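Working notes for the structural subgroup meeting. M.R. asked for a predicted model of this chain before we commit to crystallization trials. I am recording the input and output together here so anyone reviewing the notebook later can reproduce the run.

Input as submitted:
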Amino acid sequence: MYCPKCRYEFKAGVTVCPDCNVPLVDTLPPEPEVEYEYIERIPIFKTTDQSKIMIAKSLLEEAGIDYFAQGEGIMDLFGAGRLNFNPIVGPVIFAVKPEDEQKAREILAELINEQNTGSN
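Returned structure, recorded in token form:
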């Protein structure tokens, strides 16, 4: 017997899922297909400096700009990941939707200028 909600299998004799409180069924219905949507992102800023990562995230979130910080999570997998340079994982790359690119560049202008002048 299976719970149609949590999809957990139960031993014979159990008729109601104790977690979901729904009647069990003999066979599970097929799982719904998950549709994935491709969202184009344009890289606008990269850094390995943790303080600049936090500033960029804060500024973009405050402006309501949807962003992706590629490589941010992987920094934590390596012992030296949160230092100013890690040759294994490289920088965190901030990318935004094309329609947000101009506004994001304006918001992050100071950080981008520092990046372009060689200050990480």
